Amino acid sequence: MKTLIRIQFLTILGSLLILLTKAVAYFLTGSNAILSDVLESCINVVAGSFALYSLKVASRPRDENHPYGHGKIEFLSATLEGSLIIMAGILIIGKSIYNFVFPYEVHQLDVGIYLTAIAGLFNFFIGGVLVYQGKKNHSMTMEADGKHLLSDAYSTVGMILGLGIVYFTNLYWIDNLIAMIFGLIISITGVQILKKSIAGIMDEADEKLLGSIVRTLQENRKENWIDLHNLRVIKYGSILHLDCHMTLPWFYDNRESHTELDEIEKLIKHHYGDQAEMFIHTDPCKDNSCRLCQLSSCDVRKNTFETTLVWTVKNVLSDAQHELRS
């Protein structure tokens, strides 16, 4: 977590430098399109600062009042960032409409294009680093910040092309049109971040993550892991909390069962990092389980093995042991 905090601090410094570069470009040109970039960079700095605070809070150890840690604050950080992005998009669209009614002339557009391009390259580099580190460390705050910077960098490419048209044609109304388009793109990005953060606050099931975990368990499945059901995954910032029921042979003693649970936990931590934690309830197999059980060394089998039930997101969410219907 200390590494993430360090990276986020450097990101804020980088965002300040990018903001200064874009601000100079705007004051030289008076371009609405460049102004949209300036406003977004302002948001980057504010959101990045709150993200830094969030990462510091999320890094605090668990205590009596926060038994699952402080990671939920990362969702609040992403919510703030998404809201600010939407606000910036609306302001950009509003100013563009105003300047359609009250036109203006753009100056020194060539210099503005050069400065905007340099700022865009910085955004692309910083955004790529944040997304990589956010995914690697399961930090929604850092990943959201990175995606925002990347979208800013991608939009800069289109903006430069549009400003090039304005430069060669002197059709200044195109500058307003470009600003409106990117104001809309910015707003859509904000809505997407907001939706994802609210889903996290509400503990909405992450289908992609669930699918990845189920595939990992299925691909590394042992023959005595008879059944997996009642799987739940909750995110607390970078912490993944997993609950599930695992059916094991009924004749296993506590030590044998615990050995199997340790293997499952090691498997999950290997693929999803040390921040993943598991609470596994063991169920003893029943007579009906034999028809799905692959355990070849079982001496107390009541029914003949018929088929293997492949674990999927749909069937592992069931709150009961699986069995073949007669």
| Residues in helices, as a percent range | 55-70%
Q: What is the averaged pLDDT score? A: 83
Order of helices and strands: HHHHHHHEEHEH
CATH architecture of the largest domain: Up-down Bundle
Distance between the termini: 52 Å
Beta-strand level of the residues, as a percent range? 5-15%
Major sheet, described briefly?
A: 3 strands, mixed
Low-confidence stretches: none
User: How many strand units?
Assistant: 3
* Count of distinct structural domains: 2
The helix/strand class is mainly alpha
Tertiary shape: elongated
CATH homologous superfamily heading of the largest domain: Cation efflux protein transmembrane domain
Query: Would you give the CATH topology of the largest domain?
Result: Alpha-lytic protease prodomain-like
**Name of the CATH class of the largest domain:** Mainly Alpha
Rg of Cα set = 26 Å
Sheet with most strands: strand arrangement = 1-2-3
User: How many individual helices?
Assistant: 9
Describe the structure.
This protein has 326 residues and is mostly helical. The protein has 2 domains: 2-201, Alpha-lytic protease prodomain-like (Up-down Bundle); 207-316, Alpha-Beta Plaits (2-Layer Sandwich). Helix content is 63%, strand content 9%. The chain contains 9 helices and 3 strands. It has a 3-stranded mixed sheet, with helices on one face. The model has no long low-confidence stretch (mean pLDDT 83).
Task: Name some characteristics of this structure.
326 residues, mainly alpha, Alpha-lytic protease prodomain-like, Alpha-Beta Plaits, 2 domains, three-stranded mixed β-sheet, 3 strands, 9% strand, elongated
